[in-house]
Amino acid sequence: MIEPTYTITELAREFELTPRAIRYYEDQGLITPDRAGVQRVYTKRDRTRLLLTLRGKRLGLSLAAIRELIDMYDTAPDQSSQLVKLLEVLAHRRAKLEQQREDIAAVLEEIDAFERQCRSLLADKEIRRKRS
C-alpha cells in the first residue's frame, strides 16, 4: 500500500496556515518533507508532526519544546519518556498560566480601584459645581 502524501497547498488549506508558515516549521526542523524536483512532498509523518506542532503552539509551548517532544516520539522505543517530559512541560506551562491569571486579577483590582476613585472625584466635582 502506498503511503498518502500531501502538497504544501493541501496542508496549508487543511490546517488553515499559509505555505510560508509551513516552510517556517520546516526551517525549524519540525517537519522534513521529501522533494520531487522543486516541489515539497509531505508524508503522513510530516502531517502528524505539523498537527502536534500546532497543538503545542495552542498550549503556548515554544517551538524548541515542541521539537524536543516530537523528536522524543520519533526516537523513544516506548512513549514513557515522552509522556513524562510532556507532563513536566505541561506542569511548567500551567504554573506560568496560573501566575498570569493571578497577575491579571491583581491588575483588574487596581483598575476597579482607579475607576472608583475617578468616579468619586467626578461626583465630588459635580456636587461642588451644583453648589456654586
Radius of gyration: 25 Å
Specify the number of helices: 5
- The general outline is elongated
Computed structural class = mainly alpha
Total number of distinct structural domains: 2
Give the total of beta strands: 3
**Biggest beta-sheet profile:** 3 strands, antiparallel
Just give the CATH class of the largest domain.
Answer: Mainly Alpha
Q: Could you report the average pLDDT, rounded to the nearest whole number? A: 92
**Low-pLDDT windows of residues:** none
* Cross-sheet strand order for the largest sheet: 1-3-2
> Strand percentage, roughly?
5-15%
Q: Report the span from N to C terminus.
A: 91 Å
Q: Give the CATH topology of the largest domain.
A: Multidrug-efflux Transporter Regulator, Chain: A, Domain 2
Q: Give the helix proportion (percent range).
A: over 70%
- Strand/helix succession: EHHEEHHH
The CATH architecture of the largest domain would be: Orthogonal Bundle
What layout of secondary structure does this protein have?
Layout: E1 5-6, H1 8-15, H2 19-27, E2 34-36, E3 39-43, H3 44-58, H4 63-75, H5 80-131
Antiparallel strand pairs: 1-3, 2-3
Helix pairs in contact: 3-4, 4-5
Characteristics:
132 residues; mainly alpha; Multidrug-efflux Transporter Regulator, Chain: A, Domain 2; three-stranded antiparallel β-sheet; 3 strands; elongated
Quick recap of the structure?
By secondary structure, the chain is mainly alpha-helical. It has 5 helices and 3 strands; from the N terminus they run E-H-H-E-E-H-H-H. The radius of gyration is 25 Å and the shape is elongated.
